[in-house]
Design goal:
Oligomer: heterodimer
Mean pLDDT of chain A: 85
Number of domains of chain A: 2
CATH architecture of the largest domain in chain A: Orthogonal Bundle
Largest sheet of chain A: 2 strands, antiparallel
Number of helices of chain B: 14
Helix content of chain B: 55-70%
Distance between the termini of chain B: 16 Å
Order of helices and strands of chain A: HHEEHHHHHHHHHHHHHHH
Strand order of the largest sheet of chain A: 1-2
Radius of gyration of chain B: 22 Å
Largest sheet of chain B: 2 strands, antiparallel
Structural class of chain A: mainly alpha
Order of helices and strands of chain B: HHHHHHEHEEHHHHEHHH
Low-confidence stretches of chain B: none
Number of domains of chain B: 1
Helix content of chain A: over 70%
Radius of gyration of chain A: 22 Å
Low-confidence stretches of chain A: none
Shape of chain B: globular
CATH class of the largest domain in chain A: Mainly Alpha
Largest interface: A-B, 47 and 48 residues
Strand order of the largest sheet of chain B: 1-4
Mean pLDDT of chain B: 83
Chain lengths: 356, 370
């Protein structure tokens, strides 16, 4: 049991899970009914789950999907892609334009999603080529699309904010009739499982980490860093398209200015809170996803405490600083040294007892 | 430092001209691009571009951005990043307005408050990044969130300053003799600059002096170029980084006050996207994110180029709002690729393609990095 606890505290997931645990305890103390889940009937007359917990899981889906792609980019390219939200706006615009010109049925929906994916992957590859081939810092290279992305989305839509409505759209953004869990949560879980299977059962997970840890060694071992980085950007493009389409379906319209506004910052935060080093290397997808839920849980908690929405950022900042301070290597060293100092005498006694 | 005798011999002697360093090269490209762009604009579109006041308005409207960008230059040279500039600016404007209005403060008090807020954020970032070794992006992101959140906590609604002494400062203008334009009624309106521009220019010169002629500036370049080498050279890397963030925080505080002098109001939406524009100004001005290369003058011209492109887009009749961001993006793309290609060619191969003065030093590449 002791060794199991030791193994857990050494793992990357320890601090994010601990932070989530603290948040849960804080909420339970403040308001025991916070996490209650009720069965309510929504507008379409279906029985659905509702409650704070469901809204946390639901609201975090887009961020969680984006953070999966961001984790891969951070790990292999040693930098962040700050254009994910703008690219999601572009993908959403393409999605909406295809849907508006045709009657909405399932094949059309899939086709629209495919178009959105292709466009997002192309833009992502643009970023990828700048980073992998021209060896430009990811944050600088993606600054281009960060500035221009939302305007490109505006241009695709011809300057309007078109709406789409159809029972299929509400099914994706809301609830599929008959299933009480909101669809975005299901989509996110399926996506996460698919990507982790892809990373586990092919060599992609290992190679991505190798390229992030030491590019030269990877190259000498026959792994092409350029291709691995490009693949990371391609997967991120698919993530971006999925997140954009889910958000469009949930809201029912595409507003290029407000779609996932400032979401890239939340995504980078969730990757960092998840214990992944922002300077590349080993990564843990589940950590990033937990990080996304932590941020969303924090936001919902603050709203439940009646904090005005503009001030939520300040409290978020304090919590983020506390979390990153505790996960910093300096703080960890400090804790280990204190631990050794406190228990030094006991350890010495044990050693002496054994020697005797 | 060379001795007097050697310096004299050098001037007289036949030493080959020292190759231009990375920093200076990128800065030269930026300045030439800006001058070229403005000349072309004056020829092709005439009109507004021939009006000196429009050129001076580039400074008037964006003085705060120059100050934030100069602070960011120091940080980027040392290898870090700071995305809290805009947030601190907004917080300073709101806090100073509330102080002047509600608490009957003096102008001197509000200046102290601006510096104090900037100092606080600079300290926070410096300690967390330099001594606790946390990623600068996360720390400054949290700082930005904190500052933006605090703006609304200080005052939900936008506030305008109506303090008399402050307003007289705000309306102070320095007239440039000789330059001016003829208004619609034929009256000669002389070209004017605001107080904020003077402060911004002083900051640019101060940062340029710090970077070039102080030990601290040299340490910044060393730490950014290769922090392990800097450490083994005996440079206190942590202290250098700490002071870089501290100075950038103070400069953001000054930028906030300059912004307030320009607009006279505190608003939660002040200076949005300022940090990204500051990063863009730095990139166009020749500062590399990896560190070790950078220049304050280049940053100033980078900001001017950035804003000129927007003016050119407006002047050429492309009025749809998305054209401005797309052209900004294209310009960034062009500069990023140009920098990357030039630096790669300089350091790796294909040196034969370059003219003699552009080639890196044959014997000692490291010496010419700064």
């Amino acid at each position: 049991m002791g060794s199991l606890i030791k193994k857990f505290t050494r793992s990357q997931l320890a601090i994010p899970l601990f932070a989530l645990f603290l948040l849960v305890i804080f909420n339970l103390i403040r308001d025991p009914s916070f996490f209650s889940i009720d069965i309510a009937t929504n507008n379409d007359g279906n029985a659905v789950l509702s409650g704070n917990l469901i809204s946390i899981l639901n609201g975090a889906s887009a961020i969680a999907i984006l953070s999966i792609g961001m984790t891969l980019i951070t790990s292999s390219c040693k930098g962040q892609d700050i254009s994910v939200a703008a690219m999601a706006a572009i993908a959403g615009s393409v999605f909406v334009s295809v849907l508006r010109s045709n009657e909405i049925t399932i094949p059309v929906l899939l086709l629209a999603f495919l178009f959105g994916c292709v466009v997002a992957v192309l833009f992502s590859l643009f970023n990828g080529i700048l980073v992998a081939v021209f060896k430009i810092q990811p944050m600088i290279a993606t600054l281009i699309l960060f500035s221009a992305g939302r305007s490109i989305a505006y241009w695709i839509n011809g300057g309007a904010t078109p709406t789409i409505s159809s029972p299929l759209i509400t099914a994706i953004g809301g609830f599929i009739p008959g299933i009480p869990i909101p669809t975005p949560i299901i989509i996110m879980v399926v996506f996460l499982i698919l990507i982790s299977l892809l990373l586990r059962f092919t060599n992609l997970g290992l190679y991505t980490q190798v390229v992030g840890i030491n590019e030269g060694t990877a190259h000498l071992n026959g792994i092409s860093p350029v291709w691995i980085k490009l693949i990371a950007f391609i997967i991120s493009g698919v993530c971006v398209a999925t997140a954009g389409c889910i958000t469009v379906c949930r809201i029912g319209l595409i507003n290029h200015e407000t779609l996932l506004l400032d979401a890239e910052m939340d995504v980078i935060l969730s990757v960092a809170i998840g214990g992944n080093a922002l300077s590349g290397g080993k990564f843990n997808l589940y950590g990033s996803v937990i990080g996304a839920y932590i941020i969303q849980a924090l936001t919902v908690t603050l709203y439940a405490m009646k904090v005005p929405s503009a001030a939520v950022k300040a409290y978020k900042a304090i919590v983020i600083i506390v979390i990153v301070v505790f996960s910093s290597p300096v703080a960890k060293d400090f804790v280990v040294r204190m631990y050794k100092k406190l228990f030094k005498k006991q350890a010495e006694k044990e050693v002496q007892a054994k020697a005797a | 430092m060379k001795k007097g005798k050697d310096l004299f011999t050098e001037i007289r002697g036949k030493k080959p001209r020292e190759p231009i360093s990375n920093t200076n090269l990128l800065m030269t490209i930026t300045i030439c691009t800006f001058i070229g762009m403005y000349m072309i604009a004056m020829f092709v579109w005439g009109g507004g571009f021939l009006n000196p006041q429009q050129f001076l308005d580039l400074f008037n409207n964006n003085a705060f951005l120059v100050i934030i960008a100069c602070g960011l230059t120091m940080i980027m040279i040392s290898g870090g990043i700071d995305i809290s500039g805009g947030g601190i600016t907004a917080l300073v404007t709101m806090a100073c307005v509330v102080y002047l209005e509600d608490h009957g403060g003096t102008v001197a008090g509000s200046i102290l408050m601006a510096l104090g807020i900037g100092l606080f954020f600079g300290l926070l970032h410096g300690i967390l990044v330099a001594y606790l070794e946390i990623q600068p992006f996360i720390v400054t992101l949290a700082g930005m969130f904190f500052a933006r959140g605090m703006v609304t906590i200080v005052s939900i609604a936008p506030r305008t300053a109506s303090h008399e002494a402050f307003l007289s400062l705000k309306q102070m203008r320095i007239t440039i003799p000789g330059l001016g334009y003829y208004g619609k009624t034929g009256v000669f309106i002389p070209a004017q600059i605001e107080l904020g521009v003077v402060i911004a220019l002083i900051v640019v010169i101060a940062v340029a002096v710090i970077l070039k002629w102080t030990r601290f500036g040299r340490n910044l370049y060393a730490v950014g170029g290769n922090s392990h080498s800097a450490l083994t050279l005996g440079i206190n890397v942590k202290r250098t980084k700490f002071f870089a963030y501290l100075l950038a925080g103070i400069l953001s505080g000054i930028a906030g006050y300059v912004y307030l002098l320009h607009t006279g109001a505190g608003d939660a939406a002040n200076a949005t996207q300022a940090e990204m524009q500051a990063i863009a100004s730095n990139i166009i001005g020749g500062t590399l994110l990896t560190g070790g290369v950078g220049n304050a003058i280049g940053t100033l011209f980078g900001m001017l180029s950035l804003k000129t492109i927007t003016n050119i887009v407006i002047a050429s009749g492309l009025t749809k709002p998305y054209y401005q961001s797309i052209t900004t993006g294209l310009m960034l793309c062009f500069f990023i690729l140009l920098q990357s290609v030039i630096l790669a060619v300089r350091e790796k191969g294909a040196v034969g393609l370059l003219p003699e003065w552009l080639k890196p030093g044959k014997k000692d590449k490291k010496k010419n990095r700064i």
